[in-house]
Amino acid sequence: MNIFQDWPEPIVRVQSLSESNLQAIPNRYVKPLSQRPNLPSENHQNKHNPQTAAIPIIDLGGLYTNNITLQAKTLDEISKACREWGFFQVVNHGMSPQRMDRAKETWREFFNLPMELKNRHANSPKTYEGYGSRLGVEKGAILDWSDYYYLHYQPLSLKDYAKWPSLPLHCRDILEDYCKEMVKLCENLMNILSRNLGLQEDRLQNAFGGKEEAGGCLRVNYYPICPQPELTLGLSPHSDPGGLTILLPDEHVAGLQVRGSDDAWITVQPAPHALIVNIGDQIQMLSNSEYKSIEHRVIVNPAKERLSLAFFYNPKGNVPIEPLRELVTVDSPALYTSTTYDQYRQFIRTQGPRSKSHIDELRSPP
Question: Is the pTM of this model over 0.90?
Fold first, then answer.
């Protein structure tokens, strides 16, 4: 249970700071030297080293043909991406470009509403649902350069339309439609991930508590223009605490960076109407680290705002999460102690994004 009822300090909307035409960002957003993005050299590296600058792009259409060879190739590509990258883009994923564009446009309209209308949906750290501007409740913490909106879609027991935005018009219908399609895609990917582990198709889904009880929530990220992007981040380094994340990125403004195997930060260049899939900590634990939950962060832009939609597919809050027994052997002992998602997510809700420190704390003693 979250004991925090309110934020430790008055909330300042980053969008308001950006629109005030300030020349320097407040100290609350200036990262320590070791955490700053060092933009020129990283952009230079990505431009001239394309081998390390592209996460896999996988055509899911290969799964829905009668070509067995192509099906096997696609499954192998997904397996390799989950084990080596923890991130991959998917095309021919089943969601129409029109639905994707409509969802993004609806949220752009929301963030362009007058501040007093947006603030009617102001959130608290009790559930994080609604319009927010910070993660974590540590007083005096260095903050990220972003605002967001967070809402629950499923299970039905957590879904509360009163906490969804009421404007722009028809936004709830558009969100309902978008989230419904996201759940379908997540369920399909869960089946694929199970098969690629050599398990029954529904094994991971059952470990999440089943389809009816699995969690689905949406976080819409808004990254305003920043006058000093070299000093701050839109979202600090972290791995996602949940199960599976599907991101609808901003195709026009790159910002997501993934930590590569050599520890270099790789800027993801979204393919047209692709979705970005990444493994979360819960699946890393269930798979006994066969699948990787990779650290990532977001950089901001001095000339353009950026918006993205992250759909999180998570286990039921109170089911035990631990390495699946089928994957634990004498040669591959359980790497993690048991926890629940309710217990696990309290870390990021109280501490904010902290690299991969929490999942590392759950490693079983040698």
Answer: yes
